[in-house]
Amino acid sequence: MSTEAQTTESHGSPLTPRDYIKIGLILTVITIVELIASYVELGALLIPILLFLSLVKFVAVVALFMHLKYEARILTQMFVMGAVLATCILIGLLYLFRNDPTDALGGVDPASGGHAARIWIGHYLHI
Length: 127
Description:
Elements (H helix, E strand, L loop, with lengths): L2 H8 L6 H23 L6 H20 L7 H24 L19 H10 L2
């Protein structure tokens, strides 16, 4: 067997179509659990539970469907570093805009009767 044939065979996924169906069913069950959890009163536990379940699905899809589990370790490290960087940027942006007075959902008192931008501009321009 030639070296080229060996490298081609080593990059194939050892998963069979039956394995993909099993993984798809597991992901479906996790999605159903997420849906049920969103309708059950869990209080402060809801968000951590949903984040954990989403993380499990994300890892399964990346590792198995995108075949990252079977690639070179450096590719996995590059992917993880990109995901960590994106997460840090997201957390930074959420922190930066946590008390934004123009926030239409929580930054303006509905009793004031004004639009968020109008109230913000009026506050700084003394209108």
